[in-house]
Design goal:
This protein is about 60% helix and about 10% strand. The chain has 8 helices and 4 strands; from the N terminus they run H-H-H-E-H-E-E-H-H-E-H-H. It folds into 2 domains: about 100 residues, no CATH class; about 180 residues, Beta-Lactamase (2-Layer Sandwich). The protein has a 4-stranded antiparallel β-sheet, with helices on both faces. The protein is α+β, with helices and mostly antiparallel strands.
Amino acid sequence: MRLTTKFNLVLLVVFATGLGVAGYISYSVLQKHAREEVLNHAGMMMEAALAIRGYTVKEIKPLLTAQMEHDFLPQSVPSYAATQNFSTVREKYPEYTYKEAALNPTNPRDNATDWETDIIVSFRNNPDSQELTGLRDTPVGKSLYYARPIRITQKDCLTCHSTVEAAPETMIRLYGTSGGFGWELDEVVGSQIVSVPLSLPLEKAREEFTIFMVSLVAIFGVIFVVINVMISMLVVKRVRYMAHISDEISTGSMDIPDFDVRGKDEISDLSRSFNRMKRSLEKAMKMLGE
């Protein structure tokens, strides 16, 4: 096996190992960044929902107090306001969802599904837990959910949700008596849940990974060619010429010119040594001829 073949095999093994390590690390980092990006979007949606709820309580609800004596206006309910706002957002981004899911809601549309029920139960079983995140499969692909518990922390909330008798008559007329009652102070009754699609960031991460790996392979390929050219020009070609000259001298051809020695590298040192050996051999042959 020639020296260049051995060198290329070692170089290929090194490059392949480097590509594998770089690919694994870069893919892991890009996947992590994609998930963090989605989680940031979910957090922003959650904060927007909280802002809408706060605005409704502070500025909208007081304006509707007088009308509430005659008709129950769901627009005064913070959860309704937040849900309605995000319903408008979903008209343009249907894969993004926000829901205030409850096990026993007043509005039937807030009924928790199976996976939402699991989240609420988890918050109930872990009172110190303030948020949950996870992945779930949807018709449009993987989706990341971000959830926070809905806990009854103010007695004012129990005015409408403690018993049917204590609830406003206007609310009973609108929603009936089938749900939304029996809530207790400090009880987790539901969860705010934001769902953000993960497919687009993951696809973007895969594209970036592909570009990175193709670029890395191209760079390695150029390095491989350059190194082979350098080895061929600076080492292999000169060593082959020295081998040819050695063969000529071994057959008695002493009129071979000296090597053209340039530079101070190891091959140049070898060429100088070979020239000295050639001259010494010529002198020895002349002495024997005499």
